[in-house]
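To whoever picks this up:

The nightly regression suite flagged Helix-turn-helix domain-containing protein as changed. Nothing in the input moved, so I suspect the structure step. Input below, exactly as stored in the fixture:
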Amino acid sequence: MLSLESLLFKLIDIQALDAVGLRSMDGAELLSPALFIVASGEGRWFAGRVSIPMKRGSVLLMGAGDRLYTTNSPLSTSNTMLAYRISFRVFEAADDGSVRTGDRVGPSLVCLQDFMALVDIAERIYGYRGKSRPLDRMRVNLWFQEMVLGVLERADDVENKRDAAQAVSLTTDFMERHYMREITREQLAAMAGMSANYYSRIFKNRTGKSPIEHLNEIRMKHAKRLLSFSNLSVGKIAQTIGYRDEFYFSRKFKEKIGASPTVFARERKPQRKIVSLSTAYTGHLMALGVEPYATLMHDSYPIGDHLRNTILLGTTVPDFSRIADRDIDLILCFESDDRRQLEALNRLAPTYPIPFHPMEWRDHLRTIGEIAGKEKEAELWLDKYDRKARSARELLARKIGTDSIAIVALGRDGLAVYGNRNMGAVLYGDLALTPAAGAADIYHFKMIAECELADYDADYMLVIGDGEETAEQWSALLHREPWSELTSVRKRQAYLADGRRWGGYNPMSHEWIVDDMLRMLTIQ
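Regenerated output under the current build:
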């Protein structure tokens, strides 16, 4: 960015553009910097990919080389719009007295709204266009300099506010994700690119509390969750949430909550109203013997058949009105970058976002077991599953040896080949089956075209469907190329599997996969 104090601005021209005039310059490259000031009407303009609502008082500053589009949207320029285009040149004065041309003024694109004072100045400048008296030209130049100063001051104010908002958002997000670490005010300030004192001041202005007060609130929220739902000791909980000193944690907890951690835990332990906003995590809870108080659930998902008293919140978007008046203890959900969504959930109940990637399902089960106070049940379930998978692995090894297996899903969006995640975690991991060529390099799944099927040819193929419609589709595909040319189809070793049972990345689905594999491949 050019140094503002060394800049000189020279007015070149002012034009009054109606809708026709704006359309005539649509998409043309600006040969010099320009200010666009809307005097009447409204519409939506585009600068590159940036959509900009424009109305009376809107001001747009663009640099040389930029392109403005005013007609490529249903909400584009109205026929009543009138805008002033003020073209100018920017010069930079060097220390040695030389002057050179500059193309940009501060940020490359500045949009300001409700700047009515500039409409008045633009009208005055336009009224004096063509006047040749030196004093008139000087007056016009002073008005123009006043206009440029107003734009740069307003833009700087907007930028400072944006910087402050970004600094607070960046550091609060860091605290939410890394509260278990040792975090200092100086570390947060450095992250924001500010001095510690200035950072603390803007943080408190925007949130009403200091950064460390905010961090302690986050830690106390997680402490209450762990005290309510886990069997961890107070000392372990203190370490888990970022306190090295158990006694300091206990003192802070009592100051904030009004009861010691031990008393709080004793009073809260019986409560177990858990809401799951993930069908996968609902499967984990069910494996632990915990029926969620409320959950999202697809009608076709088999786990739904095992829910007896659970309140259904919907299929994909939760309807919280169904539990608005209930005393919820905990919400489980996927980890999200949407901080506002997490804040809204935390207002309902302490919310525990669990990352779906890159955690694998065993870690999900252990984490949810810890949250629900079912650590022992989680280990018992895993031990039982591992014994079952080991037995199945031995049976399958005797049946198919090292023959390769491909997992291909038929869906509305096309074909997908699965790799090492989800179903592949069971087949290629727990059951130690040999993946099809190329499948071992796929993390989760890969969308493919029919012509690419041969690249994943294998001795066996599991075709994942979701009901009778897929079964009919599969029967038709068997008899036409390229499907009929696949090794597994020619050997009659292609099997249709129930995607409703196999689709969940959770203990119950994985146990069903093991059962189905034994049924399909060992029972003839």
